[in-house]
């Protein structure tokens, strides 16, 4: 049986020293122009120091108009290179694989943040979004590719394409959102075209030792499980990516769609032929037992989100005690600060119900 601390080779780039990756986590800590802040630098590098084999940035937007939230890291301009270079170098120094996640929020870009109507594969009344022209779709594709090249210049050892959570690539995949009638709409093949073109472009313009991953959501956001399984089947068969990252919300859950219930959501992907592509998942992986269950059910690695917020050194704690018990939630804001979260990140976590304890009211 594979152990969580066993190394994991990738087809491109350095091997992972263990099966534990930092999930890409919204943290609101960088500067308004997308340049790296010390708080985001500290948050990420502390996880690399804590033993994670792969340390991934949160969504870094590839176009200014693709910003999805305040304090988001940017990768759309050379003005971002100094911070990105500093970050990648430190992650590598600490023995972790440095990966930038590439993102565009599409219709989920707040108008008040970007200053104009958000962009979407099709006009979307709910979000007040306008449809991308064909030229703009091609520019979006090219900007994802250019961002990967920029990340490589900065010293990152790979990138992950954010195709999940209802952001722009997931919007293209969704038959509910994507109503285009050109080559990027209609059939699943057409709706997935931009994803494949970005993968091909990144492969063509980056080095042989540069890894490439893809994150997918199997459901919600107008996505259909059967279609996302087919997208996964295709990218696994192509072998052009190094890893597929499944955002499941709960690794043990059953699908939402009634016709697929009776088995876990994960199982639909674990059974697919994957060749040399590695398959991982995120979703309520909190304890060592949770992480081991993911490997036992067919995953090659796991991504820790909330568990990594609670313990920057989760992998080191595992190495010291295979059955260690993570601290229960809610935790104090002081605990989060001690774990390397800056003020903006702590404030954001206070909006997560039940995660941060309310401060005790002083007695009169």
Output the strand order for the largest sheet.
1-2-4-7-8-9-10-11
- In angstroms, what separates the terminal alpha carbons? 58 Å
The CATH class designation is Alpha Beta
Structural class: alpha/beta
Largest sheet: 8 strands, parallel, barrel
The CATH topology is given as TIM Barrel
Give the overall average pLDDT.
Answer: 97
**Number of β-strand runs:** 11
* CATH architecture assignment name: Alpha-Beta Barrel
User: What is the helix tally?
Assistant: 14
Principal-axis shape equals globular
- The percent range for helix content is 25-40%
The rounded Rg comes to 20 Å
Low-confidence stretches: none
Total number of distinct structural domains: 1
What order do the helices and strands follow? EHEEHEHEEHEHHHEHEHEHEHHHH
Beta content comes to 5-15%
Oligomer: single chain
